[in-house]
Amino acid sequence: MKLIFKLLAVAAVVAGLTACHGGQDSALVQEPTFDEIVASRRSVRSYDGTRKISQEQVREVLASAQEAPSWINYEPTKYYVAMSAEKIAAVKDAVGRNKDRLDGVSALIVTSFEKGKSGFANGEQRDPIGDIWGGHDCGLSTAFLILKARAMGFDTLIMGGRDADALRKIFSIPENEIVMAVIALGYRKEDPQRPRRRPFDEVVKFF
Ligand SMILES: Cc1cc2nc3c(=O)[nH]c(=O)nc-3n(C[C@H](O)[C@H](O)[C@H](O)COP(=O)(O)O)c2cc1C
Questions:
Q1: pLDDT tens digits for 70-102?
Q2: Could you report the per-residue pLDDT of 145-201, keeping only the tens digit for each?
Q3: Which end of the chain is more exposed for a tag (fewer CB within 10 A), N or C?
Q4: Euclidean distance between CA atoms 142 and 126, whole angstroms
């Protein structure tokens, strides 16, 4: 009798360990580190159209972009998100030669920033470079956006090659906003090469 109990106990432990190991398998799928996210982010010019990103996921990406710092917390950056086939097609027609790089994207996000916000206080320009600070803050939000996207396993392409007037019409972007970039969001079809960077000491000076 004692032996049966012992055998049952051993079986229970083995079963428990197996279940535990099964549970650990999913836990072993580790979140990428910040450095891994940075290293694997690339400008992607070829997307896998069989995999789609949901609006919920795009919202999550943009919520992180909104966490970026900005001048006096003005948050001058705006996002216009094309996800319907019709709007995606319209935006593709406004990015010139970039169009050929966008088959299979899930979303095209147009960024803009409100003029007279960053670089200003109470409507008065507070710095000689004025609205360039708005461009700065928009770029900062974009950095958050592309890294959050990568952290979620997505890929991006920032496009400065775009027709700002056409985009303004497509999304009825008001005149007090400067249209910046179009950002493609999707899943990469293949791993892109890392373009070389300038020597570190050419861009960084310590004093
Ligand atoms: C402001 C800005 C505008 C860009 N415009 C384009 C563009 O119109 N078309 C394109 O294919 N890539 C564009 N890029 C992507 C750059 O070419 C790319 O970031 C650079 O070559 C470095 O490659 P990486 O992003 O893979 O590190 C742009 C990037 C930035 C930041």
A1: 999 999 999 999 999 999 999 999 999 999 999
A2: 999 999 999 999 999 999 999 999 999 999 999 999 999 999 999 999 999 999 999
A3: C
A4: 24
User: Where exactly are the structural domains of the chain?
Assistant: 1-30, 34-186
Which residue has its alpha carbon closest to ligand 1 atom 3? 160
Pick the CATH number of 34-186 from 3.20.20.210, 3.40.1710.10, 3.40.50.300, 3.40.109.10: 3.40.109.10
Place 19 in a pLDDT band, splitting at 50, 70 and 90: very low
SS (HEC) of 99-110: HHHCCCCCEEEE
- Find where tokens 């406004």 sit: 94
What residue's CA is closest to ligand 1, atom 6?
159
Eight-state DSSP code of residue 161: -
Under 8 Å between Cβ of 141 and 180: no
d(C-alpha 179, C-alpha 177), whole Å: 6
